[in-house]
Each structure stands twice: as structure tokens, then as C-alpha cells.
Amino acid sequence: MRVSLIQIDVNPDEPGQVRRERVAALVRAERGADLVVLPELWPVGAFAFDEFAASAEPLDGPTATAMSAAARDAGVWLHAGSVVERGTDGSGAEALYNTSLLFAPDGTLRRAYRKIHRFGFDKGEATLMAAGHEIVTEDLGPATVGLATCYDLRFPEQFRLLVDAGAELLVVPAGWPARRRAHWSLLARARAVESQAYVLACGTAGTHAGVEQAGYSVIVDPWGEVVAEAGPAEQVLSADLDPARVATTRADFPVLRDRVLGLPTP
């Protein structure tokens, strides 16, 4: 299974439509891959809080339209990173969400995942966006993918639920800051080890809203070994994966069967 992570430089001086066209061309250039992954909030920047409302779009907005066409033209599964979605909450009130989009090779939007854990500690994303509540997976054929986004990486319980839902590849788009790059690398490997699954962690490069981005997108195998890792600049990171290694790893070292949910009773 061929995967490609496109680590995009989110330059605040690049107009959004220009970036969409450039990214669509990068996706089309990956024809022959099985799965292409883009970073979190690349159309606007994960820390460009002041621009969230103005850049928000529905699930059939300009970013989704461009990415659907790119997926179809390339004939790939495309995890198009995430957008600021203008949607409605459970009460019907308008709300913004950090929403990842997964397109099939025919361009159909197959899954939309609203980020569950919002970053900011009572400011930024945590106050501007509503939280998602659904665990989202999709069968790609060679493997089942589970969706998470950036800050979700710090919450292992979400990944346990993804594994229980059948996930073998864990895709994590992010806009991770450079000052916490060590955590990015460590947590990607930790989620792979504990889940005995591949982790495809795709971040952004450059600096936006004054926040330097970590880059260093990484592909980790089910044993926690780094298959491929990017540098700090814009880059396409590709690797050939063997989905069967997930089942083999889980059979050879069957740690998941020994889970105890809650403490044993005396």
C-alpha cells in the first residue's frame, strides 16, 4: 500500500485560492499512491484564529470541491486534512468545527470527522469551535483507516476506540508547533506502539499567525519504528506499507487481548 503525506508550507502571504490550486496539483502528482494525506487546517492555518470565521465553509465548499476533483483525477483515497467547517450543532444553532475530509478515488466525500479534542485551554480553537463526538473509520480496501486530528494525539483513549472500531492505519493531520516537536514525534510513536497500528502523522511547515510549525511529518509502523520522516520544510513523504503487518504484530505480541477495562475487583 503506497501512502504519501504532503507537508504543506502554510504561508500567510499566499492567497487561499492560490494555495488550494497548488495543493490540488501536488495531490494530482501523487497518482499511483493508494492514500494521500494533507495537514490540519492548511487552507487557513491552525493558529490563525482571527481568520476562522471568515474562512469557514460548508462540506461542499471550495476546498472540498477542489480536493474532490484532485482525488478523482489522481485516482487516490485522499485525506484532505481539515477545514474550518460552518455547520450546525445538536440544537440547530450555527457552529464552527475543525473537520477532516476523506475522499474516495472517485471523488466522493466518504467521511467527515469533526475534531473531538480542541486545543487552547479556554482560548483559541477551544472557544471558537464546537467539539465533535464521533469515532470515525473507513475501510479503504487494503486496510481500515481511523481518523484523529492534531491535539487528539494526546488522548490515547480515542485511539483505543479507533482500534476497537477496526482501525489499522491511524491518520493524524496536524498544525503542530515547533516548540513541542519532541512531543509530536514521541506521541506518534506511542500511539503506534499501544495500538499496534500504522500512524500517518502529517503536519504543516513554515510559520503562520506567528507560530513556527514543527514539520517532521512521520510514518510509524505497528512496532513503533519510524518508516519515514520529513524535515522542517514543505515536502512529500512517501512509503510503501504492508497492511498485513498489523495483524502479524498483534498475533505475535498479543498485548491488546490483555487489556483490562477498569481496575480488577478484589
UniProtKB/TrEMBL annotation:
Report the residue ranges that make up the CN hydrolase domain in this protein.
Answer: 1-243
- State the signal peptide span: none
Instruction: Give the record's family classification.
Output: Belongs to the carbon-nitrogen hydrolase superfamily. NIT1/NIT2 family.
Q: What PROSITE patterns does UniProt report for this protein, alphabetically?
A: CN_HYDROLASE, UPF0012
The UniProt keyword set, sorted, is: Acyltransferase, Lipoprotein, Transferase
Show the GO MF annotations: acyltransferase activity
**What highest taxon heads this organism's lineage?**
Bacteria
Which residue spans adopt a coiled-coil conformation according to this UniProt entry? none
Write the protein's name: Nitrilase/cyanide hydratase and apolipoprotein N-acyltransferase
InterPro entries in UniProt: C-N_Hydrolase, C-N_Hydrolase_sf, UPF0012_CS
Q: Name one Pfam family in it.
A: CN_hydrolase
Keyword check for Lipid metabolism: no
